[in-house]
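agent: user wants the structure for Phosphoinositide 3-kinase regulatory subunit 6 from Alligator mississippiensis. delegating to structure tool.
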Amino acid sequence: MENTEAESDILRSVHALLRELDGHHPAFQNERGMLRWTLHKKTDRNPGNSTILAKILVKELERAERGDYRHYIIPLLHTLMYTLIKAPCFSDDLYERIYDFCKKLLTLPKPYCTIGLDYAFRLKTERMAPGVLYQRMVISEQSLRSDPYPYQEKVFIFADPDLLSKAVCNALVTDTKAAQMYQSPRSCMCYVIMHAMKVALDDDCDIYNLQRILQDKPTEEIEHFFRQVVTAVECTGNEISADRSQHVERLKKVYDVVLSSSEAGDTSPEGLQDIPLPNPNISFHLWTDEDQLWKELVLFVRPLSQTCEQDCLSQELDNFEIQDIVTGCECCEQTRFSVLSTDSGIERDLPPVGEEPPPHCSAEVEHSRLQRKGGIKKKASPLETMAYLQASCNGPGVKHFGKMHAKSGSNMESMSPLQRLHTARIVVLGDDRILGRLAQAFHSLRKRETRRVFLTPRLNLQFYYVPVVEGQQSTWPTEEHAMPSQIDLCEVAGYLGRGDPWYENNINTLCHMIPKLATMPSSPSKHLVTNTFIIDVMSYYIRMGIQPVCFQVYSVKIFFSDTAQEPAEDVFVTELSVKVQDYNPTRDLVLARKKTVLEGPGADIAAKYRKVLLSSRGKELGVSLRSTGLVMKAIQPDEAEDLVCLNVYITEVIKTSNLSGRSFSFMTNKIRMHSIKVSSMDQKTFTLCLDKDFRRTYRNVVSVEVSPCLEPSYCLQKTRTMQFSMHGSEDVGLAKYMPKSLLLPINTFAGIIQ
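agent: tool returned. relaying C-alpha cells verbatim.
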C-alpha cells in the first residue's frame, strides 16, 4: 500500500515537471524551478523511492521517443542519470532499458546523440563496476587522495560586489559554508566505502552496522579501507572484459575485514539507509581584482606549502611570468647538485640485467643519480608550446566565419590528447555585465598562456552562468530617440533559456529567487530552504551541465580625440553602445559658421563594414549619415538566426522641411555584419560603453573598430609562420588547423536545441 501511494505521488511530480516544460507553470509561481529539486529530495528522504522514480522516468522517456516529444527527452534523461548516480541499487533489467534508450538517441541530431553517447559510456562503465560513477564523482569533487583515480575538481563561484547587494553576497557565503559544514574528508571516504559495499553486495551488506563501525574507526584505518575499496572498483572499471563476480569478491573481502574488526551491533532497521551525495568543494569569491581568476586557478593547480604560504603568496602571484621553480623563502628553495654521469647513452654499454653496479658507485651516488634534484626546467620549444595551446583551444571548428554563432554540443576538452588531472568549474553570478568581465579575464588568461604555457597542460576549464538581477536598470541618461531606451540585463540568460528549456526551468528561475531568499526575514523554514536549495541546484547544474554554448568574443580598438593618447583595446561579448557626446564648440568656430545652417542633433559619422551574406562571404560596404548613436548586439534575438555576426542598430537623423521651418525625425536602421569601423566626420566625439557596464565607459572617442577577437595562440603561430612563408596572409602550417576565433563557452544542460 505504501509503495502504491509513493508511486502515485512520484508520478504526479513527474507529470508536473513535464507540464512545466510545456510552458504550463504551476499554480503557485514560487514553485517554478523547485519541482526537480523536490523530486530528488523525496528519493533522498526515502532511498527506496529511487527505483520507483527510475522506472517512471524510463517509461516517460520511451513514451516521449514514440510520441516525438523531444523536448522531454533531455530533462528526463538528466533527472534519471542523477538518480542513478545517487541511488545504491538498480536491477540489471532497468540498466538494460536505459542503455538501449541511450543507443536509440545516436540516430537523432545534436545534442541528443552527443548526450546519448556520453550516458551510454557511463552506463556501460557502471554496469561493469557498480558504484564507480558515485565514487569518481566524490573523489574528484572532494579532492580525496587516490592513486587509482587522481583527478581533482573545484568549484569557484565569482560574484561582483558592485552588481549584487551585500545581503545577497552574505547569504551566498553563509549558504556555501552551511552546505559544506559536515563534508569532511573522513565522512566523504565513509560515504564512498558504504556506497560501494551496498551497490556490490546488495542485501548481503549490513549498511547500518557498517556505518556504525566506520564512525568508531580512527582516520588512519578509514583511509586504509578507502584505498582498498577504490582500488577494487577502479580495477574492475578499467578492465576491458571485467568479471562482476570477481568485483563482488574483492569488496566482500574488504567488507568482512571491516565487520570482523568490531563487535556485532544491533540488527539493522528495515528499509534502505540514505548514503548522501555530498555537495562539491565550493569556494565563494567577491570579484574585486582583475587578475583574481588567474590567481585562484594557479593556487588550485599548484598550492603553496602551509609553512611558506604567507611569505611566498604575494611574490608568487604578482609574477606575471610563472617560473618553473618557486623562490622567495628558504623552505621553498632547493639546492642544485651536479652529478657526474657515467652513462654513454649507448644501449650496448648498459650492464646486463641483474648485474651489480660498479664498486665506485655507492648507494648515495646511485640514489642521487636516479632522483632529480631541484634544477631549472628547460623551456618548452615553440612547437611543444603550440601543441599545448592547440589542445587547449580546440573549440568546435576552426573556421568560424559564417558558421553558427553559439556553437553547442561539442565538449571543448574531449579532443585534447593531454591528461589534465585538475578541473576548475567557474560559476559566475550576476547579469550580462559579469559575463563581460569573464570575457575580459578569459582573454587575458589566453594571452598569458600564449606567452608562457602553465595552466593549459594541467587544467580543464569549465564555465557556468547563473543569472542574478536585483531590479531592472535603464541606460545612461539620454533623449527619447537614443538607442536603446531600456537595457535587458539578462540577454544571455534569455538566449540560453530559449535554446535549452531545462536551463530555463532550473537556472533562469534563480534570477529573482536568490535575491528574494536572501532578503527574507530570518526563520527556521527560511534557513531550511536556502541552506539546501540554492547550493543543491548549483551542484546539479555543475554536475549535469556538460554541453557548452560558445559565444564569439569581439575585440574593440578605440581611438581618442587627443592624438597624444594611445588607442585602447578591449573586448566584449554581449553589447557595445555608442552615443554622440554633447558638443560645445568654441566661440570662434561658432562665428565662422553660417547662421543659416541648422545642424540638428547627432553627428555626421562614416561607417565601413563587412556585411553578412547567405553565401558565408563578406562584402565590404560603406555608409555616411547623421546619427545620434548606435548599438552593436552580439546576442541574437532568435536562436534560429545564429550566424556569427553583429546586429548593428543605427539611429539616423532625417532632416525634413515644411512651412513652419526645418524639423528632424529619427529612424533606426539594422545591419548584420562581421566587423565595422565607425568614425566621426566632424568635431563631435562619442561615449562608448561595453557589455552594458558603465564602469567600462570610454569618452572623447573619435573612432572605433570592432571585429571578431582572434585566439591569441593562433595569432602567435601565424606571426611565426609568416616570417618564413611566401603565401602572404594565407594560413599555412599549424595555424591552418588551429581555431581562429576566441570563443567563450558557457555550459548548459543541452546546449542549443534546434
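agent: one observation worth passing along. The chain has a mean pLDDT of 79.
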